[in-house]
Specification:
The chain is α+β, with helices and mostly antiparallel strands. The protein has a single domain, classed as Aldehyde Oxidoreductase, domain 3. 35% of the residues lie in helices and 34% in strands. Strands 1-4-6-2 form a four-stranded mixed sheet, sandwiched between helices. A four-stranded antiparallel sheet has the order 5-3-7-8, with no helix packed on it. Strand 7 and strand 8 form a beta hairpin. The radius of gyration is 16 Å and the shape is globular.
Length: 146
């Protein structure tokens, strides 16, 4: 299965090259890598929690849905957990298809799902303390279009 939930750092370039090399008859590969951002300049770390087994199953189901909805040759989801600092890679999706439209749409769909429904819980730690990250209306709105 092309789903990985891990605490280890990964190199998106290496992952993308390996993904692309393993895809047959694709005319398009699309990838997105998300970084831990520090909006206010005071973030010390983002702590990401999940339930092993449950998370991988949920991500596998959404990957399978993307594979059914679009003409994809393959799809990859990598998401980290643990304490991550600003600028670190937090996640990556990659999709491959014969045509770019399917690859772009499927990657966008996977990202919208990861932002709003994937079973990860995020807490931001700063000098002022720690707060759980709440769901955002714009993330829910983005998911509704699918």
């Amino acid at each position: 299965m092309r789903i990985r939930v891990q605490s280890d750092v990964f190199d998106p370039g290496v992952e993308l090259n390996a993904f692309s090399a393993a895809v047959d008859r694709a005319g398009a590969v699309v990838s997105f890598s998300g970084l831990v951002r520090d909006v206010d300049g005071g973030l010390q770390a983002m702590e990401i929690e999940h339930y092993p087994g449950m998370t991988e199953k949920a991500l596998g189901q959404i990957r399978d849905e993307a594979m059914r909805r679009w003409d994809l040759a393959d799809a990859l989801i990598i998401h980290r957990h643990g304490a991550l600092t600003p600028g670190e890679v937090i996640m990556m999706v990659a999709t491959a298809s014969r045509h770019r439209k399917d690859a772009f749409e499927a990657a966008d769909f996977l990202m919208d799902y990861l932002k709003s429904r994937a079973p990860f819980w995020k807490k931001e730690r700063s000098g002022a303390g720690a707060d759980w990250v709440a769901a955002r209306d714009e993330d829910e709105d983005a998911l509704r279009r699918w």
